[in-house]
Amino acid sequence: LSDLSGQTAIVTGGARGQGAVEVELLACAGASVLICDVLNDEGVALASRLTDAGYDVRFQPLDVTSETAWVAALDAVTSWTGRLDILVNNAGIINRKIIRDMSVDEWRKVMDVNATGAFMGIKLCAPMMIESGGGSIINISSNSGFSGHYDPAYTSSKWALRGLTRSAAMEYARDGVRVNAICPGLIVTDLNRGSPHLEPMINMTPMQRSGEADEVAQLVLFLASKGSAYITGEDFVIDGGFTA
Ligand code: NAD
């Protein structure tokens, strides 16, 4: 059910952190995977490590806020495999300032990457997925997208991703493109390593631990594959019971 042979995937923010693990798992399942990120060196190194291991993986520089860069990424897919089946909108940034300390530009930056970047990905990738006979889009939101937090821009962008997921799912269902969101809790990566919030969050988590990037990637694989064929417009919380 999770054999992705013959399929092509784009993973944004795929050069490190959770995205890199998602890239590896999708490639292991047989997909050709385009790593898209602003981190060139990390992206090139990951693509070369996975290619050496026998997987079909390439790197494409992509800033998710640039429409031109998205078009270039789709051109790269067209000349590589000629089809697109899976898009993981994983790229994300955080700014922990509260409203009174945050400038409008800082707010816009977070919304631009986390929400508008995913909107652009869906808008530009969906037509190629439809041409390929359908596909699966997975938006990486957060369990922050269910309540208020002291990082208002990040929290708002993750709520926005849940709304985008549901709306896009309705719009593209008849075209055979499914759209779902994953809402992880604490996963220790470069996004939050060293943060003073880690220990309190673990203490508040019923399972008393943080999650592993691989546990999120397994859910990405499920939502990308045939086993989830009748699921669209849903958000899946994966946070050790934090939101329960
Ligand atoms: P990370 O910082 O390790 O990875 C984020 C990736 O996104 C990096 O490779 C970065 O270069 C890339 N990126 C940033 N801006 C970009 C842009 N404009 N264009 C393209 N790529 C860009 O963090 P992570 O924890 O792996 O985060 C992955 C996703 O998971 C994010 O959307 C994050 O919000 C979400 N998330 C993380 C946690 C957590 O606890 N780590 C929890 C819930 C949700």
TrEMBL record:
PROSITE patterns with a match to the protein in the record: ADH_SHORT
Any one GO MF annotation of this record: oxidoreductase activity
Q: Name one GO biological process term.
A: steroid metabolic process
Q: Does the keyword DNA damage apply?
A: no
Alphabetized, the UniProt keywords read:
Lipid metabolism, NAD, Oxidoreductase, Steroid metabolism
Signal sequence extent: none
Keyword Lipid metabolism listed: yes
Its family remark reads: Belongs to the short-chain dehydrogenases/reductases (SDR) family.
What protein does this entry describe? 3alpha(Or 20beta)-hydroxysteroid dehydrogenase
UniProt source species: Pacificibacter maritimus
